[in-house]
Amino acid sequence: MRIDVVTIFPEYLQALDVSLIGKARREGLLDIRIHDLRDHTSDRHRTVDDTPYGGGAGMVMKPEPWALALEAIAASAADADDADGARPVLLVPTPSGTLFRQSVAQELAGADHLVVACGRYEGIDERLFEWAAELFEVRLVSLGDYVLNGGEVAALAMIEAVGRLVPGVVGNPESLVEESHSDGLLEYPVYTKPSSWRERDVPEILLSGDHGRIAAWRHDQQLARTRARRPDLLPPESTVPGDKTVSDL
Ligand code: 6GU
């Protein structure tokens, strides 16, 4: 998978040299390229922003440097992207986007080419997104209901969430199956040695060797946890197979 990131702070993306994603890049599983938006300006000050029409606080990113940066990326990938007729996905991290959830990460993991546009200030001139729709499948996505200073930290989170789902990036693909959100529920609690630690014992059942009962216990734990911490993830009256109703717990 190829991932291009456009930013005015390329240093932020150095975290992608590290750990699992860094290794996947070195192995050629992920072709991640970082671009400085200011390389697509032509004035002495390398200006990327200006004051908002209509007034108001802050600055807005000018559309032209973005268009030049995105055109250069689209041109450099045209052969590969044309091969299957699919446009690359343009991911725009923004608190006013739709929620970036595991199902979105799974969809994006199937793409050949992602381009991430990291905005700063009050955002990018709206016309950029209309213009970009000819070259890209544009998706505005948010990490959640809070505000970051720019898209870079969100881009790191999204690239890690998508990158680890690309075949070969995570060594043991089974670890992708039993994790929070992969089945719409939170993960069950986990324990390791020693079996007794500071007067606290690992739940008996996990030492029993009875894999059927362990699987059932873990599923119950997932449901109880999801109800307690994230009831918004559950359907109103849960219809999950093997489920207990609230009154049974
Ligand atoms: Cl994707 N971007 C910014 N700037 N702030 C955010 C966000 C994204 N998600 C939550 N807050």
UniProtKB/TrEMBL annotation:
<comment type="function">
    <text>Specifically methylates guanosine-37 in various tRNAs.</text>
</comment>
<keyword id="KW-0808">Transferase</keyword>
<dbReference type="InterPro" id="IPR023148">
    <property type="entry name" value="tRNA_m1G_MeTrfase_C_sf"/>
</dbReference>
<dbReference type="InterPro" id="IPR029026">
    <property type="entry name" value="tRNA_m1G_MTases_N"/>
</dbReference>
<dbReference type="GO" id="GO:0002939">
    <property type="term" value="P:tRNA N1-guanine methylation"/>
</dbReference>
<dbReference type="Pfam" id="PF01746">
    <property type="entry name" value="tRNA_m1G_MT"/>
</dbReference>
<dbReference type="GO" id="GO:0005829">
    <property type="term" value="C:cytosol"/>
</dbReference>
<protein>
    <recommendedName>
        <fullName>tRNA (guanine-N(1)-)-methyltransferase</fullName>
        <ecNumber>2.1.1.228</ecNumber>
    </recommendedName>
</protein>
<feature type="region of interest" description="Disordered">
    <location>
        <begin position="226"/>
        <end position="249"/>
    </location>
</feature>
<keyword id="KW-0489">Methyltransferase</keyword>
<dbReference type="InterPro" id="IPR016009">
    <property type="entry name" value="tRNA_MeTrfase_TRMD/TRM10"/>
</dbReference>
<keyword id="KW-0819">tRNA processing</keyword>
<feature type="binding site">
    <location>
        <position position="119"/>
    </location>
    <ligand>
        <name>S-adenosyl-L-methionine</name>
    </ligand>
</feature>
<dbReference type="GO" id="GO:0052906">
    <property type="term" value="F:tRNA (guanine(37)-N1)-methyltransferase activity"/>
</dbReference>
<dbReference type="InterPro" id="IPR002649">
    <property type="entry name" value="tRNA_m1G_MeTrfase_TrmD"/>
</dbReference>
<keyword id="KW-0949">S-adenosyl-L-methionine</keyword>
<comment type="similarity">
    <text>Belongs to the RNA methyltransferase TrmD family.</text>
</comment>
<feature type="binding site">
    <location>
        <begin position="143"/>
        <end position="148"/>
    </location>
    <ligand>
        <name>S-adenosyl-L-methionine</name>
    </ligand>
</feature>
<feature type="domain" description="tRNA methyltransferase TRMD/TRM10-type">
    <location>
        <begin position="1"/>
        <end position="234"/>
    </location>
</feature>
<keyword id="KW-0963">Cytoplasm</keyword>
<comment type="subunit">
    <text>Homodimer.</text>
</comment>
<dbReference type="InterPro" id="IPR029028">
    <property type="entry name" value="Alpha/beta_knot_MTases"/>
</dbReference>
